[in-house]
Amino acid sequence: MSETTKQPLRLALAGLGTVGAGVIRLIETNAALIERRCGRPLRIVAVSARDRGKDRGVDLTPYAWEDDMTALSARDDVDVVVELVGGSDGPALTLARKAIADGKAFVTANKAMIAHHGLGLARVAESAGVPMRFEAAVAGGIPVIKGLREGAAANEIERVYGILNGTCNYILSTMEDTGRDFADVLSEAQAMGFAEADPTFDIDGIDAAHKLSILASIAFGTQLDFSSVDAVGIRRVLAADIAQAESLGYVIRLIGMARVEGSEDGKKRLFQRVHPYLVPKNHPLAHVDGATNAVVAEGNFSGRLLFQGAGAGDGPTASAVVADIIDIARHWESENEIDPAFSIPVGELDATVPAQTGDRVGKAYLRFMVADRPGVLAELAAAMRDGGVSIESLIQKGEGSDGAVMVAMVTHEGEEGCVVKALDLLAGSDSLTEPPLVMHILKQ
Amino acid sequence: MSETTKQPLRLALAGLGTVGAGVIRLIETNAALIERRCGRPLRIVAVSARDRGKDRGVDLTPYAWEDDMTALSARDDVDVVVELVGGSDGPALTLARKAIADGKAFVTANKAMIAHHGLGLARVAESAGVPMRFEAAVAGGIPVIKGLREGAAANEIERVYGILNGTCNYILSTMEDTGRDFADVLSEAQAMGFAEADPTFDIDGIDAAHKLSILASIAFGTQLDFSSVDAVGIRRVLAADIAQAESLGYVIRLIGMARVEGSEDGKKRLFQRVHPYLVPKNHPLAHVDGATNAVVAEGNFSGRLLFQGAGAGDGPTASAVVADIIDIARHWESENEIDPAFSIPVGELDATVPAQTGDRVGKAYLRFMVADRPGVLAELAAAMRDGGVSIESLIQKGEGSDGAVMVAMVTHEGEEGCVVKALDLLAGSDSLTEPPLVMHILKQ
């Protein structure tokens, strides 16, 4: 492509929702500075979406329209296909495969598709000699994939973790500020457009798990493994848990946490978990409020790096999409110049097995709702003792609306397997009015 | 250089202080992963420093030794010269010029040299077709130059600001935690190695000004202009100021702040200031403690991005130096592939004039030490009134050790010129026992 230097990089956009419209607005608004920074202009050539007539607040008349989005990648006047349709399979995946097969560079904001099919797509892109990029798939406008792939490239990354879902963080930090309960804050967030009508993917930690699996692959040079992420969402977190955590010096955040560990048999073990965690107030993530995202990477030379910003929204997401396009405009001169999508060629990424959690050592917060009658506390304490769980602090709070009593405890540092064993001992006990809630405490 | 793909990238290191030794340790420790991420190994070929015999904790015998560091760049077996000598002029600058003239890629951690000579060096590097990189010159291990140049490349940056000097942040946050005074904490920091024996560059804001001028050039696409940074350090900040700020909902941080503004005559105006600021406690920078650095960039699409991490130290600085080398290893295939050091070719950077400060609008904290006698408060209040300064809150505190009384006030939002005028009215008054201290309040 050397002959195209100084020629425009020609783009086709599939999907014209808020992000697609944002990308168009960005490229139009910042055209002059983008051209200065790229050394050549970006030019949108063609677009495609489901409904041609819909008013999106941007003028589409300068661009060719394709009813069939796969026709975008067949066009000779297109260098880069930008996929903003969403969904792990279906039209987005069809377009991705077609674009790469047609020799186009491929840029996407689609975390679900990358989590499920990213390795396969990257493998094909590498053999086709075309760039594939997905900065916007993780943490919205924050350039964290670039930060890991390039900025921290010299480091062995010990842990990568963070706040990866803006909806959950908005809900948890609003519960914290107002003392209101989950369902109430969720309804409000839905009314304000901060949460989807069907919030399952966000609330149950699946969206964060998509992003975590992508981050882990890039941070550790391991094969992406979404299926083994242990994801638990925030539905069961009560205002009372937040108040309890507060009094102990913690806030509650939904954290995606990944690390990789060696083992005796030489296989790397990949630990990936999305859970609500208790975060010590002196940790930088404790101060991340609202819909903000933040990612921490701990490198063996860099120490702790923190990347923070808006995790969603049309502007921030468009910023990340166009950053990828600018990278392509700057570097896609020859096939030699294409960095692998996951930093290392897919064939060289390490295979892993999922890590066991039982022997992990840490502190945990356990919360029980129990019947208000004599002997229940003794029953809990005995189960902890018999499981081998040592209790650092315990608080029992007066009756809830249903007559149940809340008992919250923080354990001393110990093996997670002990907590599991203690809870197994309590399973089926009619002293518990609902299943216990376990939250891990984030280590500094 | 296409024929060298998969061949090692060959390095020469000048300067073997703690950072130089850190770079060697990093390249040795992480050799395997760096090779995976680069697609080829990094190989240190030759080194140079003042004292060959000194024990640096790393084995230098595998590397050729040059007594004369400029001989490094003359070697045929060297691709990249890494300068870790320091100093804005002298041997570092001589080596930089020679390395570029000899067609070597050039990597440096030298903020003073880049602040003073970066544009000239970049211009020569661009015409020679060699890459020049200086990620480690700003904010230690944090990949913030990459973040601005590439991650946020799609955005017009409205402000770039942050905590750019770890020594000052360590001193201020220790004063905050302990209530001790500046001189006392500085001595301790010197004893612990967190501050230099001659701390002038750090304490007086010059080091932060070097970094700010580099960040501003990259963020705004403007010519680097170190000479117009208005730098005031932290020597005059008292424990009493910190306590006062605390009671008003602020912490005190040394902030480097830059923005660029248009004007009627078409010339861009560059505002660059390093001052102690009052930072609202709900701003992310208020939670940056110890020797940590943090940079905020506000993009017109990305919104607020925050990059945080260790601002100094051998490991973090080495991490940034080697990230630059990895970038070169990945991309330096042909002359077409070299991104300009300042993101935009030097000849295309905008010229600017320094911005005026008088018409800037904001809130300020003013602190006076005054004689303890009747009428002094009235004199202060009259000067404020006559300058046009409106006072939001005022606190007078009992006698200090020298019999002086402290009067601290926070103004309503107003023009900075009014504060200057009010203080001019007080100049020479024998009611003041020392010159007043003015600190601006960081806007959200």
Description of the molecule:
- 2 copies of one chain form a homodimer.
- Chain A is α/β, with parallel strands linked by helices.
- Chain A has 3 domains: 2-141 and 315-348, Rossmann fold, CATH 3.40.50; 144-310, Dihydrodipicolinate Reductase, domain 2 (2-Layer Sandwich), CATH 3.30.360; 361-441, Alpha-Beta Plaits, CATH 3.30.70.
- Chain A has helices at residues 18-29, 31-38, 70-74, 90-101, 111-128, 144-151, 166-178, 182-191, 200-203, 206-220, 239-247, 314-331, 376-387, 416-426; strands at 9-14, 42-48, 64-65, 80-83, 105-108, 132-133, 157-163, 230-231, 250-261, 268-280, 292-299, 303-310, 352-354, 361-362, 364-370, 391-399, 405-411, 414-415, 432-441.
- In chain A, the strands form 3 sheets. In chain A, strands 7, 8, 9, 10, 11, 12, 13, 15, 16, 17 and 19 form an 11-stranded mixed beta sheet that branches. A 6-stranded parallel beta sheet of chain A has the order 3-2-1-4-5-6, sandwiched between helices. The first copy, chain A, has a two-stranded antiparallel ribbon with strand order 14-18.
- In chain A, helix 4 links the parallel strand 4 and strand 5.
- Chains A and B meet through helix 1, helix 2, helix 6, strand 12 and helix 12 of A and helix 1, helix 2, helix 6, strand 12 and helix 12 of B.
